[in-house]
Design a protein that fits this description.
homodimer, about 400 residues, alpha/beta, Rossmann fold, Dihydrodipicolinate Reductase, domain 2, Alpha-Beta Plaits, 3 domains, nine-stranded mixed β-sheet, about 35% helix, elongated
Amino acid sequence: MVNVAILGFGTVGSGVADVLTMNRDLIRQRAGKEVALKYILDVREFPDSPYKDCFVKDFSVIENDPEVDVVVETIGGATVALDFTRRALAAGKSVVSSNKELVATHGYELLQLAAEKGVSYLFEASVGGGIPVLRPLTNCLAGNELSEVRGILNGTTNYILTRMIRAGLSFDQALKEAQDNGYAERDPSADIEGHDACRKICILAALAFGRHVYPQWVPTQGITAITLADVDYANSCGYKIKLLGRALKMDDDKVCAYVAPHLVSGENPLSGVEDVFNAIAATGNAVGDVMFYGRGAGKLPTASAVVGDVVDIAKDVTAPKRNQWAAGDEAMIQSPDCLSFRWYVRANGTMDAARSAVGDITPLARSGAPASEIAFLTESMTQAQLNSKLAGMEVLSSIRVLG
Amino acid sequence: MVNVAILGFGTVGSGVADVLTMNRDLIRQRAGKEVALKYILDVREFPDSPYKDCFVKDFSVIENDPEVDVVVETIGGATVALDFTRRALAAGKSVVSSNKELVATHGYELLQLAAEKGVSYLFEASVGGGIPVLRPLTNCLAGNELSEVRGILNGTTNYILTRMIRAGLSFDQALKEAQDNGYAERDPSADIEGHDACRKICILAALAFGRHVYPQWVPTQGITAITLADVDYANSCGYKIKLLGRALKMDDDKVCAYVAPHLVSGENPLSGVEDVFNAIAATGNAVGDVMFYGRGAGKLPTASAVVGDVVDIAKDVTAPKRNQWAAGDEAMIQSPDCLSFRWYVRANGTMDAARSAVGDITPLARSGAPASEIAFLTESMTQAQLNSKLAGMEVLSSIRVLG
């Protein structure tokens, strides 16, 4: 028998309780033993909950109960969650987390602590919600040298962009709709400014390349500046605008990671990922390209990933999962300014002026464009090269094209 | 140090040797120890091979060498491969296989033997080539009751269908091109008749639903009857024709599995899987739909999956991987005749006659159709219902539509 304590009875925490309950028989079968919910920590009262006998308000009850084997942390943030995670690991309990902020900011330290204590710290749910991605990356692709991990890592922004593309909504209208549907929070900045995707690409980069990458080292651009004009021009040449997180292995083992909108070709399977779905693609020197697709958020999908980790630990609580990466080192980070792209550019001016400034360009057209507006795709160049060529032009937007 | 012996130096076997060599340092790092290639078994001579010192012709050398921990079986078929796999497991060695025929026909027996001997029998490479799919299904989705697994499981047929759809080649032309490109064998029947996909859906069904499903229980239809006319009609209504393997959990724990071409909606991510790529989708009661995508065949992608299994075993050769299913039982198999679908039908006749025979239909059109030809989509019904309604018509083709 393995006893589980859930920290935080919000969307994900209550989902974990529900999945442990509704799939109890098959979880017992797969773990080879009973996996029982013993505690739920929350400051609030839930007198009508089916789990009402499990609630405690004091973390030390969980910390000091030697029968608790696995602590599920779904509190979020990096303050209380950090304290409780440290204390749970220090008390010799394995911890399973869905908390991308905590893993992205303190993952190295917590993995070290777990290793010292001979327990596991697993966080499949922190990236891609229910999509199996971290374990496949580290286990199934263990025979590969990975050169890149990239993906649509945030469901809220993908929903907004999909509604702009398919329904012709403006960014503000699509954001409002996402909020009305519960896909975006009242304060949507962590999603639309790209911070959520940034934390996830940090975790993917650490697992793929073996070294902690901190969010503050990752240039991050959201989707607030994307207009319907950009969506229309992209569509006219067979592209869709997607917010991507990318992490690339560079020469000398350096890592380049960033978050930004991209024009993604209709030939690329990432372009077909719509609504709140996420997808993570990886490139390995043996496997080539693989992609993992599914629901990147939501109560039960995220709980599915948490419970997968719990079952993995429950199979043998005495055998901690090896899941390590090295300390971060800013000297090993390379700016995305070193990368060359084709660029999509929208500007006020004439195509002739653009051609003489930028060189070979592919003109784009859309119906209803103001007479002064032009748009085009450039040849491949770095951000600095683009900026210098565009210096004399009135640029309305410039977006990377995924090669 | 973990010693590996490879059985069979064909495409996959030589790929495994190459991946173990080219990624040796990072494999050591991930396994926590050296993973060394000690033997390659092949009846042929390879005097110029970089691995020439590893070759042996007598399996008993491997069987009797206590230093060999992991045997990689890439022989194929279910005769010699079965004998050697049994003997390797009986000798206390873990076995990693890319051999879908052997797993689909003798998986239960071999997994039992592995469990008795306290070793592992792993076969990630047997389905989806390099795509991580079996381990994510059994580990990451362990908290889910799975209701369905389905996929594009054969790269050769997907290449042929893609070329018919995109280049307007006939089936015979596309097959010839696939053979010229090395994607199809001289005798292509295992691919184009659906037998390869059948073996793979048997393995997926066993892992997803916990019981061996034998290929002879799985109704299997290939793509040899698909014409350009069908491709055009499908395209006219936003569908692509794909060869799918499907396995569904039915009432009373019964399993329904079959292989057949389907019209797949452009909204379904499986429709965007082109060329030799494969994709496997699963539906769980917590996670919803997930999909795994990548190269389903080829030397290095398949070797990537094999080496992933080898690394997993090498981490701790004394801890066998739990990977079991129950014996097969034909009484638990339900025929796909119980399933209802919308159907695509092409026939000689008039739309009025079709309407009076079939009821509500959606007429389809294509340019260049003979005057006598009609095509339409039906409402949802079983195969038996469709057959009875179409009894008086001259049917040219009927294909399931994926709902």
